[in-house]
């Protein structure tokens, strides 16, 4: 196993380009790998030019960084579960553009967070972040955890459509030599380990695997070593974050209550030999805390 870090851990505005300064920081901290992200479809023309891609790859090579994974943000692929065929096809087209970009960057894996059903409404614009009624950034306050489902809400149709669309995504990824890693967050179509296993049984495509985010599974009260044991042969990538079990779920590893020794034992137990990548945001003095967390996890390697 190797340790990596998502470029948006150090990017201004969290996910926003440019990513060159983040490459330098992540390399200086001694990481082996780095993740990139397509934040918005407009970035394909505005930032991800052929010249930029060449420059980013050269900079990664100079810092000894392997691209472990390339992520597509929700804005790029939000309509993959859309019951409207035209909207779904547009999202598949944007997904394929993202796959081509990932391949150009030398990534073996394309990743996206499982989408939430189109039309669901919550006090958070990024619906998965609405798991606690007093989270910062919510629109208004209510002591009741309450979301508005689309009307009508045909779950069977949403699920069947999603299975078909994810199968198409896996085929596109495979055609370009990549694997597809779906990631579970709260309040999405495939939120946790067991729902991913069900999806994979229905999709039946060898290119489909999982990106395990320790924090998002912890929010949903999964015991991470147990989750890892379920993912033997299906785990493509790991996001490493810690949590306090109450409200803070984007802590540097070692600053919360997750059992990292148990997590690494479980990863070894299933024969996982990929990247464990830090995904952290909103940290003041980020280099200090990420460097400290990297040293902490390095002991378990």
How far apart, in Å, are the first and last alpha carbons?
Answer: 7 Å
Largest sheet: 8 strands, parallel, barrel
State the shape.
globular
Proportion of residues in helical segments: 25-40%
CATH fold-level assignment: TIM Barrel
Q: Tell me the series of helices and strands, N- to C-terminal.
A: EHEHHEHHEHEHEHHEHEH
- The number of distinct structural domains comes to 1
Please outline what is shown here.
α5 (85-104) packs parallel to α6 and α9 (224-230) runs parallel beside α10 (260-269). With 301 residues, the chain is of the alpha/beta class. It is built from eleven helices and eight strands.
Describe this structure in words.
The structure is a single chain. This protein has 301 residues and is an alpha/beta fold. The protein is built from eleven helices and eight strands. It has helices at 20-28, 43-46, 50-62, 74-77, 85-104, 155-175, 193-203, 214-219, 224-230, 260-269, 286-300; strands spanning 2-6, 33-38, 66-72, 109-113, 179-183, 208-213, 235-240, 275-278. It has an eight-stranded parallel β-barrel with strand order 1-2-3-4-5-6-7-8, surrounded by five helices. The longest helix is centred in the middle third of the chain and has 21 residues, at 155-175. It starts with a strand and ends with a helix.
